[in-house]
Amino acid sequence: MIKIKNVTKKVGAKVILDDITLDIEKGTLVVLIGSSGCGKTTTLKLINKLIKPTSGEIYIDDKPISKENTIELRRKIGYVIQNTGLFPHLTIKENIELIPRLKKEKTIEEIEKTTIELLEMVGLKYEDYIDKYPSQLSGGQQQRIGVARAIATDAEIILMDEPFSALDPITRTSLQEQLFTLQDELKKTIIFVTHDMDEALKIADKICIMDSGKVAQYDTPENILRNPVNEFVKNFIGLDRVWNNPEYIKAKDIMIKDPVSVKPSRTIIQGIEIMRTSKVDSLLVTDKNHKLEGIVTVKDMKSNISKSQSLGSIMSSEVLVVKEDDNLVNILSIMNERSVGYIPVVTDEYKLAGLITRSSLLSVLSEQFLEMEVSVLG
Ligand SMILES: Nc1ncnc2c1ncn2[C@@H]1O[C@H](COP(=O)(O)OP(=O)(O)OP(=O)(O)O)[C@@H](O)[C@H]1O
Ligand SMILES: [Mg+2]
Fold this sequence. Notes:
Oligomer: single chain
Strand content: 15-25%
Largest sheet: 6 strands, mixed
Helix content: 40-55%
Structural class: alpha/beta
Distance between the termini: 45 Å
Number of strands: 17
Protein name: Quaternary amine transport ATP-binding protein
Shape: elongated
Strand order of the largest sheet: 6-7-8-3-9-10
Radius of gyration: 28 Å
CATH topology of the largest domain: Rossmann fold
CATH architecture of the largest domain: 3-Layer(aba) Sandwich
Main location: membrane
CATH class of the largest domain: Alpha Beta
Number of helices: 17
Bound molecules: adenosine-5'-triphosphate, magnesium ion
Keywords: ATP-binding, CBS domain, Cell inner membrane, Cell membrane, Membrane, Nucleotide-binding, Repeat, Transport
EC number: 7.6.2.9
Domain CBS: 255-311, 315-372
């Protein structure tokens, strides 16, 4: 949908953007994030042709925008400008309806109906605001009008430059939710600029972390958290970030690999001996292909009188398992709900991959917190 290809922007000798290449797929929400002055606003301005690149090209639907009519292009794009950018001499209603009325794709009645809906969506009462001028509104209210106006254009592309930055945390959270819901429904292509990593993680399909005019990493939130490409990204997201987002922690990150497992043909006597020497109180039973067949606990073994029976004949084959990619939140809730102290982890083919126990969880978590403390001290 939007392709930024080897774009460099210089002002005099100063390099503002240094060879940026980004591919933004249709219907996705991409967050641009980075420290102040790294070039986020400049990137949006280039897409909207407010400024021209020094070299490189931007394509929208495979057409180079340098060759497109600027006015036409801007009508395809809704733009929430940093610090609102409402027209001061127009009322709120006129501000929101300006582009839809220019486009003439909808009747006046349809446009007005949309305006009411949009104001409601951003949490403002129609009657109270419609005839006011931007200067009569607070900064946060103006930002909300800016968001409503960008959506009102019906544009396929929306550029949002720190649209929620002047809002209190509660309004901000509610607008993030609304944006997410709206995006789920409308599937616009949105480029959203923010300073706030938590905001980015809540709404982004992909995050582009920028560092002094360069792309440091462009990836899904999950990959950025799990595999930051360098120290800059690591520091930027913060060490505790992954642990504040337990849905990104997977079973495979916390499981004990190579848990003790036995073949079903083992006898109870052998099983007890294996348990004793490996200091565990249950055994996972796997077949020759390492597929999980069942589980035997020390209790099952002790209650069986004939100790020469095979483990296969006494094991319980209904084992609660999780997949390697199940996340910590799910795993903890399963362990709590079913009050189990351990849970085997299997691959998609049901092969035994690992085991999560309460103590393995505890040791992984405490190691993480130690690491955090060390990095704070050091
Ligand atoms: N017209 C200009 N002339 C000279 N330098 C400029 C111009 N516009 C922007 N810059 C510089 O380019 C760099 C990037 O600016 P930009 O506004 O894109 O940053 P940003 O990432 O949006 O920052 P912020 O988070 O503070 O909004 C800054 O160092 C800025 O001072
Ligand atoms: Mg900016």
